[in-house]
Write a structure and sequence with these properties.
The chain is of the alpha/beta class. It contains 10 helices and 16 strands. It binds NADP nicotinamide-adenine-dinucleotide phosphate (NAP). The site of NADP nicotinamide-adenine-dinucleotide phosphate (NAP) has 20 residues, from α1 and α3.
């Protein structure tokens, strides 16, 4: 039987990915939306979250797609009302609130899922399998995109807690923390912050690796023209490049996958919802905060450099 689910925060990602994934899955019935402006044709629409929880006790799962700063209050209310909760990335605005949600979910006996959609890109698992047993020598993340193209009008990204360039950058970190065998930690961080913004538009990070491999990441929101979402890795037994956000993989210069671009990325959200269905059935909690811990560390160690104002 399908789980009834409510989707809250009907913005870009809810429309682009969550709604199609839910509509296509036999595991789920999209039973309600909660949004001040958005709705989905044919689905009961609420503007108030508490009113939805009150009116629809039959809806046992909620998926939260609003930006990170307001998300905690929604997640807390849902858990206290006995609902299972799925969180868009990043799972919250701070690590402490994520830990608090995990404790609340445990106490309430409900499932809680911190999703990392990029981990579900088609070639992440094959990359992880290829890396197993090899010695890492070098890893370079290059995540450079045009914020005007991908985040039009999203002023929250530039406000404290909106992460700036770490909003896409955390996707790279979710892949890195998934595929590497050894834990890494940030050793230096430079944050380029526009004079009129509270969050960085670019960041340069280096990481310490237990076996001394060179690990670095360059995030930039100002890239026009070609866009890059690449992770290039050298090991003692050859090299690997994950590109297009994990959708394509080349090993020692040979392309490994048939599906590329959009086609290969389309599986991300269906896989997230399949994971959530399994988690709810098992009453499980999956709250891996490793990508977010790196972002928090980047802010803790970050050397701030003021750059020219950002005008959309
Ligand atoms: P968005 O287009 O700005 O939409 C977010 C929605 O959340 C808005 O439509 C708004 O709906 C609601 N919202 C905004 N501020 C709110 C507040 N203070 N309180 C309650 N609801 C609020 O943002 P998005 O791109 O969908 O991103 C949302 C989340 O998904 C972010 O965490 C982002 O990192 C993640 N994500 C985005 C993408 C992407 O490509 N855009 C990809 C993967 C993950 P109402 O005003 O109608 O209530």
């Amino acid at each position: 039987m399908a789980f009834k689910i409510a989707l809250a925060g009907i913005g870009k990602i809810a429309r682009d990915q969550h709604v199609p994934a839910l509509m296509a899955s036999p595991d789920w019935e999209l039973a309600a939306t909660v949004s001040r402006r958005g709705s989905v044709d044919g689905v009961e629409a609420f503007e108030n979250f508490d009113a939805m929880l009150e009116a629809r006790p039959d809806i046992t799962v909620v998926s939260l797609c609003m930006p990170p700063v307001p998300r905690f209050d929604f997640a807390r209310a849902a858990i206290l009302a006995g609902r299972h909760v799925m969180l868009e990335k990043p799972p919250g605005a701070t690590l402490s609130e994520c830990h608090a949600l995990k404790a609340l979910a445990r106490r309430a006996g409900v499932s809680l899922y911190a999703t990392w959609h990029s981990r579900e890109a088609a070639m992440v698992a094959p990359a992880k399998a290829w890396l197993a047993g090899k010695t890492l020598k070098n890893l370079v993340v290059t995540w450079k995109e045009d914020v005007r193209k991908w985040h039009p009008g999203q002023t929250w990204i530039w406000q404290a807690g909106g992460l700036g360039v770490f909003d896409p950058g955390i996707n790279a970190l979710s892949i890195v923390t998934e595929i590497l065998q050894d834990p890494i930690h940030i050793s230096s961080s430079e944050l380029l912050i526009p004079e009129n913004c509270e969050t960085p538009i670019a960041a340069n990070l280096t990481f310490a690796h237990p076996q001394g491999a060179q690990v670095s990441a360059e995030f930039d929101f100002r890239k026009e023209g070609d866009q890059f979402w690449n992770i290039a890795i050298e090991t003692d037994q050859g090299s690997l490049v994950l590109s297009e956000g994990g959708a394509t993989l080349s090993i020692n210069g040979e392309m490994q996958n048939a599906a590329i671009g959009d086609t290969a990325l389309k599986g991300e959200y269906p896989r997230l919802y399949a994971n959530m269905a399994a988690l709810v059935r098992a009453r499980g909690i999956d709250m891996d905060l490793a990508p977010m811990a790196h972002v928090a560390d980047a802010f803790l160690l970050g050397k701030r450099v003021s750059v020219e104002p950002f005008v959309e």
